[in-house]
Automatic annotation (TrEMBL):
GO terms for molecular function: 4 iron, 4 sulfur cluster binding; metal ion binding; oxidoreductase activity. It comes from the Bacteria. The keyword 4Fe-4S applies. It comes from Paenibacillus sonchi. InterPro entries: FAD/NAD-bd_sf, HdrA-like. SUPFAM superfamilies: FAD/NAD(P)-binding domain. The lineage of its organism: Bacteria, Bacillati, Bacillota, Bacilli, Bacillales. Transmembrane segments: none annotated. Residues 463-492 are annotated as: Disordered. This is FAD-dependent oxidoreductase.
Amino acid sequence: MKMRQEAYDVVVCGGGLAGVCAAVAAARQGAGVCIIQDRPVLGGNSSSEIRVTPHGAAQFHAYARETGIISELLIEERALNHEPILENGWTNSVWDMVLYNLAVSTPNLTLHLNSTVTEVHKDAERHISSVTVRVAGAETQIAIEGRVFIDCTGDGVVADLAGCEWRWGSEGREEFSEPHAPLAASGDTMGSSIHFKAKDMGRPVPFAAPDWAVRHEDPAFFYDQGRHFYDLAAGYWWIEIGIPWNTIYDNEHIRHELTRHALGIWDWIKNRDPLLKEKAANYALDWIGQVPGKRESRRVLGRYFMTEHDPAGRTVFPDEIAYGGWFIDLHSTGGLLAPTAEPSSAEGYAETSEYAIKSYCGPYGIPLRILMSKDVDNLLLAGRNVSVSHAALGTVRVMATTALLGQAAGTAAAVALRRGREACSLDFADIREVQQILLREGCFLPNCRNEDPGDVARSARARAGSSARVHGVGPESRDYTGGFGGTRLPDKEPLTHRRGQWIAVGTEEIRSLAVCLSNESGTEQTVEASLVPVDSIWDYECGAKQPLARQQLAVPPGRMQWVAWEAGLTAADGLRSGGYVRLELAANPQVEWHKGGTVIPGHTSAYEMGPSKMRRYGDGGTLSFRIDPPQACYEPSNVLTGIARPYDYTNIWRSDPAGPLPQRLELEWETEECIGTVELAFPGQLFREYHRYPPFYRDPQCPRDYSIDAWTGGGWTTVASVKGNYQTRRRHPLSEAVKTDKLRVTVHATNGDPSACIAEIRCYRS
């Protein structure tokens, strides 16, 4: 056995998305970092070995897609990959190589693959000094010393070996009064899954399952118990098994049982299912996973224990470092061995049931303290092993969310080292620095905005050659978004529930509104309309606020007619420029409110799913409306709001789409500034979840070709120029710092949008 020693500032154990983002974040902050991964590829459950595609908040909330390092990775994957991403089973090695490329290209980062942590060594009761790592297939053992350790192993391996306290299973209802908690506590956990992928061969292909595969004979097992065949070409999350086996110690037994079931399910599809066997006749099994994807095992106790009440109530934490927005998704323990699949699936994904209402949550903030071990001072946590209850894990565990936790942990580790503190003992000033670094690195925090004292752009004035105005959108509007537009809804979508359309207010007046409605009842119908103030596009409270205005709309019989409302609202009525109002129509099943033919950026919609609570309508696209006067809600000052996405306002500059490119946005200071770095955030890939974007995708809103110029010596000097861009965040360290009182960004071409768009500009002296 070969032995060697290594030493780093930060040692990240586990190479899933949380681990990758933790390691890259710490390395970018100047720390010397090592990442230890026990598989030959990075990505954990998202890798080509397991193929669980990353989910996140945008599955349920418009403009909620996670940004930061995870966004860089997913944008790159879609730009390079020739295959679609639909659901589990579709991941290929392009994704593996995107992750690998980032890891090996990041300065200060050392990568150890096929390496397993076998021992943890402490030099004090509350302090880890090193870990022992065994490299598979190399007869090598490495003693790796570190100053900060981050456990991203999923199973909490490092925390367990270090003697940390952890929880397993489900808390009982009486402990925290969580609505999703079972009446009695138990050791039950959510199970693990494996996936498969099939290929259409263009001709009939037989399949014979081995004798040891499970043989299914009863259609009720699938169709009456919530196990839906939503895609013939890929595997299903519900091929899942946990109890009676332990998801750690019985992992190999679970793998074999899952393989038996997966082959048996494919046998059912191919040979016995009365609905599918003809459709599946030409399909051949192309790939089947042999590494179980885990949902739950150890949850390590931290400095705060997050329960279901926090995401459900959107608790505001002073140490917020990430956000989530998946629903409280607790799979039936036992999986395939349970009486039904996960409750939402068993209900047919009903969106207005009692279960759906109590499970829908977010977006909500997540505190740094759940990443801080309570027992070891230099051990941080990231991934599904963080300090949460079983019920809270139902929403925190999805991979896009855990990637944010990883970036936060890596950033916190670097700040702790820089400030000479233990990683689990950061004070408010330290945490504020972590928050501002995360924002600068592209992350979004619902309750924080850019207050970076080093960003001199915050003291500038912004102006542009033109700015778009919102007139509204109709069903006939042309969709120029190249995939950004909304998904098709049913041809007839009656107002069975109260529905709301968010409208950004860019003037202090709304004289009139109109909505496109159909009424095929044969008699005149009445619909109550109201304008309600809202705090953000995720303010789903319904009926809690006094409307700014209310009107009964008379809807005569007919199709697609514009029904007007003379609202006559001004600032004197409480109308606030620089925020949102929600145009609501009360339920009337005899009336349809038609969806727009395209999405107006920053203008989303929702419907009342239950008493006083809304949820996203469809994919959150724009419902048809007209507004007078047109709203000036894409002004150049939006690039300096401190928030780089639609949230409390549109927060983006858009040029007038009727004007030709190039278009320019300029910053001007009262006195000269010395600028060494310019950082830009562009709109794009926020509205919908990663799964919704096609192969080789480049978001139309994102500038493709642009340049940055500084005013020097009475003329403009180009200090940076880019062609072929598709990433939404770009940093430009200038070859030489410039003294200037004016800086401009010129968008010469986009990836398809007729408007030039910028979400944020930052400028630093170095």
